[in-house]
Amino acid sequence: MKYIVAIILMSMLGTSCANFLKEYSQDQAYIRSYEDLDELLIGETYMETAFGNTDACYFPYIHLMADETKENMESDEVSQPDYAQPTKKYFGYVTWQYRVGYAVDQLTATEEDTYWNKIYKHINIANMILDEIDKQKVERDKDILNVARIRGEAYFLRAAYYFILANLYCQPYVPESASATLGIPVKTSYYIEDISFPRGTLADVYKQIVTDLEKAAENLAGISRKSIFRAGIAAVRLLQSRVYLYMQNWEKAAEYAQLCLDLQDELVDLNTFGESDGFAKADSPEVIFSMGGNNIPNLVTNLFAGVSVSDGLQKCFKNGDLRSKYFIVYEKKGVPAWDCNKYSLQGSGVNAEVSECCLFRTAEAWLNLAEALANQGDDENARKALDELRKHRIKRGNFTQTNLKGENLVLEIRDERRRELCFEGQRWFDLRRYTVCEKVPFTGSIRNTYSALFNADKISSVSTYELMAGDPSWTLQIPYEVLQFEELEPNPRKERVPVSVESVR
What we know:
This protein is an alpha+beta fold. It has a domain at 2-48 and 113-216: Serine Threonine Protein Phosphatase 5, Tetratricopeptide repeat, CATH 1.25.40. The protein is 41% helix and 10% strand. Strands 9-10-11 form a 3-stranded antiparallel β-sheet, with no helix packed on it. Strands 1-2 form a two-stranded antiparallel sheet. Strands 3-5 form a two-stranded antiparallel ribbon. A hairpin with a 5-residue loop joins strand 6 and strand 7 (337-340). The longest helix is centred in the N-terminal third of the chain and has 29 residues, at 141-169.
């Protein structure tokens, strides 16, 4: 972690920050006012926003690891294979390899620590803001509120980042064993310390997340959010609900989901939607918060015929489900495929407006509430919460109230999450936590394929890889570059071989 923190501080002191960071020495920067901290919060603590740029997006592989996508290489003629086959770049992720950066030939590798370092940089700047914010002189009520808002946003962001890292690089949370499960390094001070930060325990990480969110709520309560791209109290409540859902604390998950809905509960009725520029957009009444970029309209598209909506996801939508029109679409150009049109309709020329990896919507709050209640055995109220969402998504003539109960109701809510939250960066995390759910554990598997090419333009073989529930590969390995510099214990992830190989030529 010393190496990471050093890099972070150097980046903070560089010219890429803002002009309010005046360098007085190589290890010291001065803040003039809370407005400077607010600018630093916007520019360096929130995820970068970039639409249509893979390199600027966060965790572009997150959709490829889960069961939302599939290779779309159905033709034996493949044009522009390096461009049209994103699974080639992300082979190690798609097939859940020990070293995710390895190419299929294991002779070349891509940098693995990019997003690890990005997130820890954001965390460290949040730490700096939290250290400096209480030093600012404020006299007016407006100033007091702004200081509280900045403090609350910084706490929220730090919690969100540790939550993301924990669910990428730690095993899923199991209440009985979290205190004996490896976590990630947690650092809450911004200055360089000549010590190594150990991984600690997963319980410690979640304790920090819970504490930060409580402080975020204390500071943001009663303060209006500046925009959907700045965290407000509703976003805090929704993240609290999500965190407790992952911790299998069903009572707390339901409590905070309801607190979120008390603040913002509106749902778009797809029966009257009729929009032509995509469902998920900045002015949607469902959007609570968004940060980070979006490359889905480029990644899951018929234009390049590399990745499409998986068969499982496509078939998950039932008759009368309007999301099969507004979330996915069947394209016949080139290689026929189901594509994602959730963020912008194919061929519309409209860019995505909200993130593919960090998007908070009221729909999730309704689903969190339903799932938490169902796992508590409150089937009646769980069905009411679920149907509140469904009646806004199903054709009026096809809608019927849910009558499921017990385990079947829990499974239906999970299917509803799959449909509703597709391509929002949640499916991989959801599947992980289902594998350790004490009430209704997921015991199945997911399968991905990788197509090898002959002469760079024809498919020679298709290899199928399978990830079973309970496999340690549900957890990413600590980035290779980080392990080379830091005294961190690696995750017990294993090398993988295909379960079948089909020769095509």
